[in-house]
Design a protein that fits this description.
The chain has 328 residues and is α/β, with parallel strands linked by helices. It has 2 domains: 162 residues, D-Maltodextrin-Binding Protein, domain 2; 134 residues, D-Maltodextrin-Binding Protein, domain 2 (3-Layer(aba) Sandwich), CATH 3.40.190.10. 38% of the residues lie in helices and 19% in strands. The protein is built from 11 helices and 12 strands. Strand 1, helix 3 and strand 2 form a beta-alpha-beta unit. The longest helix has 30 residues. The chain starts with a helix and ends with a strand.
């Protein structure tokens, strides 16, 4: 092939490519009703942009009122972070929204996001493939952006005499395979597991709508057990956080040793064992993530902005203050 022919082919290929790109952009404008510049701007924002010091340096924070919701494990983060965000960015107004039915949870938040009731959601559990499929059926996709590391802590009655549980024993309790505390080194006492409908399925589990009520039940029932985010359990005055191990030879507490007696609470409170979560020594850790609705619209911009704010050094300091582990 001559050099002239090669040039002609390359030019034609370039024109075809530009035509396809132009057609794609036209389709996106028609599908989402946004300007090209806005869409490209949102899509090109990389999460690495959050390598900044404080909230005021975060770019592309939108204006408006944005509903968000989800995991109750995020409660202490919301309390620490959101008022400061709204002070720095008063036009970025955040409104936590409870579900119309049932109690707030990671699963409920995802469902509300899929039903366009939220701009973004907060989760403490990984998204299931079903959620991704439902999003695609509705014409958008979901993206999880991790912002913190958390540990799952187990709460029992303060008067229960037991050293700890292995992960397998804990799972067997909620599966109904272990029903008495004597089977795991405790007293001859029936185990009463409390849980949530969208999380637990064991026949012996009594479903409680809120973490506050579940912990109240454990505090009054010697055989009770419940699990949730470590910061929600470790600092409590009426329940005991239980050490957990991969095997019975090494139990790792979710609190910083030595254990502060509950009789000294609330004057003194136990602190979360963040070092064990970060190192992986504690066997049940997880990531807290912002779930972004990728639809090229302002909801996506709001979710990305919220995640970037939390991933700044200032945001990560607030996350540590709330009892979680910085992800950076």
């Amino acid at each position: 092939m001559t050099q002239k022919n090669e040039t002609t082919v390359l030019v034609l290929a370039l024109l075809v490519t530009l035509g396809l790109v132009g057609g794609s952009i036209w389709w996106l404008i028609q599908r989402y009703g946004v300007d090209v510049g806005g869409l490209v701007k949102i899509r090109s924002q990389s999460i690495e942009q959050s390598n900044v010091t404080n909230f005021s340096q975060v770019q592309n924070v939108p204006s408006g009122v944005f509903n968000y919701g989800g995991s109750t494990s995020w409660a202490s983060i919301r309390k620490e972070v959101d008022p400061v965000i709204e002070t720095v960015w008063p036009q970025f107004r955040l409104r936590y929204t409870d579900p119309n039915r049932g109690a707030p949870s990671s699963v409920a938040g995802i469902q509300m996001l899929l039903e366009n009731q939220l701009s973004f959601s907060q989760t403490s559990v990984p998204l299931e493939e079903k959620a991704y499929q439902q999003a695609r059926q509705r014409g958008f996709s979901l993206k999880e952006i991790p912002v913190a590391i958390d540990g799952v802590a187990i709460a029992v009655n303060p008067n229960l005499n037991i050293k700890g549980l292995t992960v397998d024993q804990f799972q067997d309790i909620y599966a109904g395979k272990i029903t008495n505390w004597s089977q795991v080194g405790g007293p001859n006492l029936k185990i009463k597991p409390y849980g949530k409908k969208d999380r637990d399925s064991g026949a012996a589990v009594e479903f409680i709508p809120t973490t506050t009520e579940a912990l109240r039940q454990v505090a009054t029932n010697l055989g009770g057990i419940y699990y949730t985010s470590a910061p929600l359990i470790v600092s409590q005055c009426n329940v005991k956080p239980l050490p957990l191990g991969r095997n019975s030879d090494e139990f790792v507490p979710p609190y910083k040793p030595p254990f502060v007696p509950l009789s000294e609470c609330p004057r003194k409170r136990n602190q979360v064992n963040t070092e064990a979560f970060l190192s992986g020594q504690y066997p049940m850790s997880r990531r807290l993530s912002v779930v972004v609705k990728q639809n090229g619209q302002i909801d996506e911009q709001a979710g990305l902005a919220y995640a970037r704010l939390l991933l700044t050094y200032q945001g990560q300091e607030f996350i540590k203050k709330a009892g979680f582990v910085s992800i950076r």
